[in-house]
Amino acid sequence: MTKEERSRGSGKRLVCRLFPKRMHPLALIPAVLLALAHPAAAACDPPVAVRFAAGASSAELAGGIPRGSLDCFTVTARSGQHLAVSQRPAAGPSNIVMQIYKPGWKITRTDDGPEIAAHALPGAGEGEDAKSWYGRLPASGTYLLVIGTTRGGGEYKVKVEIH
Predict the structure, then answer these.
(1) Rounded to 5 degrees, what are φ and ψ at 36?
(2) Distance separating alpha carbons of residues 42 and 26, to the nearest angstrom
(3) pLDDT tens across 17-66, in order?
């Protein structure tokens, strides 16, 4: 922050500048948007439960993920129900990927970030870079949905449906 004194009439007035003279205030918009989006996101410790509105069978998750981070959500369902998790259309190519783990998962905090001990649903494991998943759930309980990126950071809109 710079300070500039200007004389006006008989008194002096102190003017504070929030931005350097050469920086346009709009240049900070991307950083501010990412900072605002991330606190609403679901860090993996603890994961955030997906809540469905009364009578609804779907919910939408939205947020932003900085590079190297994960957002984790839980979905409680019964054996035999069908789960669909899909990305909502985004502008340009998406680097958002997901993993879905069967009930019995465990998250451990490490120096390198969260470590997940679990069995993934077919096609939705770590390294499979799933963009969506649909299938019949094999067991009753709480499933873990992990949202991450293949590179850099990213914004996501994901729809979760249970039938």
Answers:
(1) -70, -35
(2) 28
(3) 334 455 555 554 444 444 444 334 467 878 999 999 999 999 999 999 99
For residue 46, cis peptide bond before it (omega within 30 degrees of 0): yes
Structure tokens belonging to residue 151:
């590179």
Other residues' Cβ atoms within 10 Å of the Cβ of residue 88? 12
Q: Round to whole Å and give the CA distance between 75 and 49.
A: 6
Instruction: Say how far apart CA 59 and CA 7 lie, in whole Å.
Output: 59
Q: How far is CA 45 from the centre of its chain?
A: 13
Q: Kindly state the tokens that stand for 4.
A: 């500039």
Strand 71-77 to strand 48-49: parallel, antiparallel, or no bridges (unpaired)?
Answer: parallel
**Distance between CA atoms of residues 68 and 57, nearest Å:** 31
DSSP states along 131-150:
SEEEEE-SSSEEEEEEEEES
Query: Per DSSP, what are the bridge partners of residue 87?
Result: 158
